[in-house]
Specification:
The complex is a heterodimer of chains A (about 280) and B (about 230). Chain A is mainly α and about 280 residues long. Chain A has one domain. Chain A is about 75% helix and about 5% strand. In chain A, helix 1 packs across helix 9 and helix 2 packs parallel to helix 4. Chain A is globular, with a radius of gyration of 19 Å. Chain B folds into 2 domains: about 160 residues, P-loop containing nucleotide triphosphate hydrolases (Rossmann fold); about 60 residues, no CATH class. Classes of the chains: A mainly alpha (about 280), B alpha/beta (about 230).
Chain lengths: ~280, ~230
Amino acid sequence: MEFWVGQVFNGISYGALLFLLAGGLSLIFGMMRIVNMTHGSYYLLGGYVALTVISRVSNFWLGILGAALVIALIGIGEWNAFLKRLGGQELGQVLTTMGFALIFQDLALVIWGGDPYTIRVPAYLSGTWQVGNLFFPIYRVFIIGVAIVIAVALWLVLERTRIGAMMRATVDDAEMARGVGVNVYLISMAVFSMGAVLAALAGVVAGGFLGVAPGGDFEILPYAFVVVIVGGMGSLKGALVGSLMVGLLDNFGKALFPELSYFTLFAPMAAILAVRPTGLFGRA
Amino acid sequence: MLDVSDVHTYYGDSYVLQGISLRVDKGQVIGILGRNGMGKTTLIRSIIGFTVPRRGRIRFKDHDITGWPSNRSVSLGLGLVPQGRRVFPSLTVAENLSVAARGDGGGWTTDSVMGLFPRLRERALTRAGKLSGGEQQMLAIARALMTNPDLLLMDEPTEGLAPLLVREVGRVIETLKSRGLSILLVEQNLPLALRIADHVHVVSRGRIVHSCAAGALWTNEEVKSRYLGL
């Protein structure tokens, strides 16, 4: 019993982390049709920037803020200089963003070296809560809380504001959105930087329990893509359900059949795609 | 107000508009007639900026808007009712209107466009994808009005509508005209176009082949049979 509750909890908290990473990726995918291989780099660089900020000012929250600002600038720069010209050219997008991912990977190695680090989290976020015989790490509860807050905030912005309606109109028909006066350029830039900031946030949060180390970017990127593909591009609900599913599958896969862990992740994805080619909540 | 001069537009390799020039003056309704595939929609797409012309200039309210992003032309006062309605299916009726709202005081508001189309008020919270074809057309017109245009581009606003709705849309276009809105109207429905337009151009194979006052086309059997298939 304890094993199952513990594994479900771990799966959900990993799913919460994946949601932070994949939510933005899904919106970028759905709205701008940009396949962004650099998304994992935003995650890794976010962790490193926070590490540096926290080592200087010893404040976890300032670390998050610093990472968000730096990664937002990197994302906006990359989008403005390259990606906005590559609309509809998947091959060009993949090669360009893959190139950036490799550059950022080596840059991180030059600046921060090859040693793994763990981000120091505030004392009130470490330790565990005990419920009966069960122990819940407070930091993992915190991650779930962050994901819930972000999910609610994103939902409110998308469904309850005029800007959100403009974003959805752009997903529906970008050309026509321009034709009724929506500045699709600004909207796209806002969504792209928001996605980058969420990836950076995921990187900082993950730095507190998975650590920050070379290779972290390409390790987590496939998971984010599986979430987006399973949930459906551009769907917030899809990203949420997909993240939980992938988090749980990965966790149970690794706990029960460690030698088959990739199979337990990708086989259900293939099955879902066979039945619903646009993902659970995706539109054609 | 709108001055299209010698516009040549390509769609990929195909040479669609082969030098079109026309003017729309303030308060005028200009009709564009012609069979399918003759370049009428490409003309509208060229003016709004969806497809940028390779040669020629488009001037609107003393600005050269050739090659402008569409949203900039819309901000200047160009409105679009596109072919095939193209409402945003996942947005509600009210949201379709609000994304287009351009607040220039004294113009159209959500309330006043819903006064023009009472049906839209009843369906304000319905997703536009669930509306009937006629309702979607009303929404497409209402949405364009929300941008408070000085000139409205209308691309086949009665296409695929039942006769009753064709009359309703015709009545609305006449109302807009009587309020002084300038309109460039692409229309297959000849009686409707000739009743509302002041002046018409007949388009064939990317060129204007005949221009005349709307009334004069009624009796021009040669142009009607040669270019409109009537």
